[in-house]
């Protein structure tokens, strides 16, 4: 069923990406239709075209509003989050030459959470902009902490992972401390749900901001795709092939922190996507980044939208935290891949 | 292009790795770098390739101070093959050789006929055309070494730095690689352990000991019984080779210390 495309097989890649985009469209449509009450796909389609002023079909006002204002924006935000986290994982894994690297493992998500929680609970400023700013400051603080502990580029990739584990612990502890000492009961409930990840409450404004951030970041990452290939043998080899290693690391770490901070500030810390999707993508299209990054975008988006549908329907009248679903769906899938990969060697 | 190093010094971890080392490689020359383990050969190659900034001294490639060259301009002139560089990525041998084209390509530029030809030539040069589609992980140590050299050749450099390129290779491929390097007539600086290889393939040799420059000259001038005893702590007899120009070294392993 799954096979690795041979290098230099652009048609295969296009077919895969085309298929992925179709699958994504279907998933988003399904996400807009499925919920506490199901809405037929035809109504979903007409609701979208109505709101784009392409049609003026007479629809149930409530159904139309649910599709457009609640579910569609939520599904598209989920797609962007999945795509963004998958790109972050692919880039960190390549730059650090470590298959475990991703924003969650490196403590960047934890740092962003701490920053956002500090804003929510301690009330530093108010409104979405300062929440994002808090997450942003936290993400960069975590990155700085990891960079400092792992001593920049000199020490090996493993030390960076250890520093990331330390950063996760530190920032999670800080978050708990802030919640335990300063939050009232309602704030604590909000914070806890949001720490496990939730797409509840995201609407079109979040989508627009996220779209701008992810699109910009993707352009930067595609620009550096060839450069990332040159890191396969390490920083020194990359440098000897003409890569300005220091500048590339700063730019790409910065872009990764930007994406992570934006995502965490909106939907909380969602693990596993950044770890697993790049591995699945590599398995399908190989390790070269000009193919890998687009594959990560499509696969990450499909995975996250599907996980969000599952989180909404698996328990009647309740929504599971998205992080629970990504792990429950992702781990068995990943196990099968690992098992198959072992058999092929 | 010529390579000139003037009084290079370099410290790492509070230890003086290189102290006042100078050398000169003329255009087209193959310069051997010999010395015991830890004498600073690899560090010197890193300084020459511009991967490390020297604490003192300077390196010139073709008369230009490399501190003023961008990384990319440097990579268009100079290629480096380090010891035992490896990857976990699932890349093919050809993917690795293609990396050598990195400095020649823009961020989004397509793959050109010149790129393809450089890769094909490089693979043929190290005799690895047949293995181009194999996955890196499945290659033997010697095959990996040859692919790394092909990667450096695909870079189309004028200057080649090689750090013990014959490690892991059987004798046939040791000779094939060193002949290739000599016959390319690039300016090459090659760190070598095998002194007879140095005598066979190098135009001139530089001897390092504990980070200091000990001697430099033709193989006949440098490879002496006295030097073997002083620098390498072994007893040996050096005779002119009856089969080729240059000296030939025999080690006296059971003799009392010379």
Mean pLDDT level of chain B? 91
Strand content of chain A: under 5%
Distance between the termini of chain B: 41 Å
* Rounded average pLDDT of chain A: 84
Strand order of the largest sheet of chain B: 6-7-8-3-9-10
Number of spatially distinct domains of chain A = 1
Low-pLDDT parts of chain A are 1-8
Based on the coordinates given, report the CATH architecture of chain A: Orthogonal Bundle
Q: Could you give the order of the helices and strands of chain A?
A: HHHHHHHHHHHHHH
- Number-wise, the strands of chain A total 0
Structural overview:
Chain A: One of its GO terms (biological process) is siderophore-iron import into cell. The complex is a heterodimer of chains A (345) and B (258). Chain A has a single domain, classed as ABC transporter involved in vitamin B12 uptake, BtuC. Helix content of chain A is 76%, strand content 0%. Chain A is built from 14 helices and no strands. In chain A, helix 4 runs parallel beside helix 6 and helix 12 crosses helix 13. The longest helix of chain A is centred in the N-terminal third of the chain and has 36 residues. Chain A is globular. Chain A starts with 9 loop residues before the first helix and ends with a helix. By secondary structure, chain B is an alpha/beta fold. In chain B, strands 6-7-8-3-9-10 form a six-stranded mixed sheet, with helices on both faces. Chain B has a four-stranded antiparallel sheet with strand order 2-1-4-5, covered by helices on one side. Chain B has a single domain, classed as P-loop containing nucleotide triphosphate hydrolases (Rossmann fold). In chain B, strand 9 and strand 10 form a beta hairpin. The longest helix of chain B is centred in the middle third of the chain and has 14 residues. In chain B, helix 3 packs parallel to helix 5 and helix 4 runs antiparallel to helix 5. Chains A and B meet through helix 9 and helix 10 of A and helix 2, strand 6 and helix 3 of B.
């Amino acid at each position: 069923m799954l096979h690795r495309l041979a290098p230099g097989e652009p048609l295969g890649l296009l077919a895969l990406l085309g298929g992925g985009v179709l699958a994504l469209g279907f998933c988003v449509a399904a996400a807009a239709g499925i919920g506490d009450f199901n809405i037929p796909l035809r109504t979903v389609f007409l609701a979208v075209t109505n709101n784009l002023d392409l049609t003026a079909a007479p629809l149930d006002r409530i159904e139309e509003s649910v599709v457009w204002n609640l579910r569609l924006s939520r599904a598209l935000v989920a797609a962007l989050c999945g795509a963004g986290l998958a790109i972050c994982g692919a880039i960190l894994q390549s730059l650090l030459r470590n298959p475990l690297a991703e924003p969650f493992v490196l403590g960047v998500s934890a740092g962003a959470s701490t920053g956002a929680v500090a804003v929510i609970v301690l009330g530093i400023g108010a409104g979405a902009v300062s929440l994002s700013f808090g997450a942003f400051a936290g993400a960069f603080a975590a990155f700085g902490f990891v960079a400092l502990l792992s001593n920049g580029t000199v020490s090996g990739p493993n030390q960076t992972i250890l520093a990331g584990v330390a950063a996760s612990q530190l920032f999670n502890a800080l978050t708990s401390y802030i919640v335990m000492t300063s939050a009232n009961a309602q704030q604590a409930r909000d914070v806890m749900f949001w720490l496990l990840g939730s797409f509840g409450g995201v609407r079109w404004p979040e989508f627009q901001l996220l779209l701008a951030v992810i699109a910009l970041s993707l352009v930067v990452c595609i620009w550096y795709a060839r450069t990332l290939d040159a890191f396969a043998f390490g920083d020194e080899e990359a440098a000897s092939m003409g890569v300005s290693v220091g500048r590339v690391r700063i730019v790409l770490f910065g872009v990764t922190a930007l994406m992570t901070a934006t995502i965490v500030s909106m939907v909380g810390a969602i693990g596993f996507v950044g770890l697993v999707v790049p591995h699945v993508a590599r398995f399908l299209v190989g390790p070269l980044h000009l193919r890998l990054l687009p594959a990560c975008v499509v696969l990450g988006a499909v995975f996250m939208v599907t996980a969000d549908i599952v989180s909404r329907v698996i328990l009647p009248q309740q929504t599971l935290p998205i992080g629970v679903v990504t792990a429950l769906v992702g781990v068995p899938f990943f196990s099968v891949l690992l098992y198959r990969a072992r058999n092929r060697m | 292009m010529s390579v000139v190093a003037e009084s290079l010094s370099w410290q790492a971890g509070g230890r003086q790795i290189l102290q006042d080392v100078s050398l000169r490689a003329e255009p087209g020359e193959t310069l051997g770098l010999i010395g015991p383990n830890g004498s600073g050969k690899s560090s010197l190659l890193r300084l020459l390739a511009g991967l490390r900034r020297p604490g003192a001294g300077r390196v010139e490639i073709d008369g230009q101070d490399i501190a003023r060259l961008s990384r990319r301009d440097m990579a268009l002139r100079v290629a480096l093959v380090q010891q035992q560089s490896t990857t976990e990525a699932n890349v093919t041998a050809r993917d690795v050789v293609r990396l050598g084209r990195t400095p020649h390509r823009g961020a989004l530029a397509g793959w050109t006929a010149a790129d393809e030809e450089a890769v094909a030539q490089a693979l043929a040069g190290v005799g690895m055309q047949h293995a181009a589609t194999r996955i890196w992980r499945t290659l033997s140590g010697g095959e990996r070494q040859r692919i790394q050299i092909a990667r450096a050749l695909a870079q189309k450099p004028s200057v080649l730095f090689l750090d013990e390129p014959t490690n892991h290779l059987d004798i046939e491929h040791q000779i094939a690689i060193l002949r290739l390097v000599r016959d390319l007539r690039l300016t090459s600086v090659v760190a070598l352990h095998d002194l007879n290889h140095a005598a066979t393939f190098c135009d001139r040799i530089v001897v390092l000991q504990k980070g200091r420059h000990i001697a430099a000259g033709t193989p006949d001038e440098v490879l002496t019984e006295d030097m073997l005893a002083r620098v390498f702590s072994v007893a040996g007899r050096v005779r002119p080779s009856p089969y080729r120009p240059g000296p030939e070294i025999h080690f006296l392993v059971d003799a009392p210390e010379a």
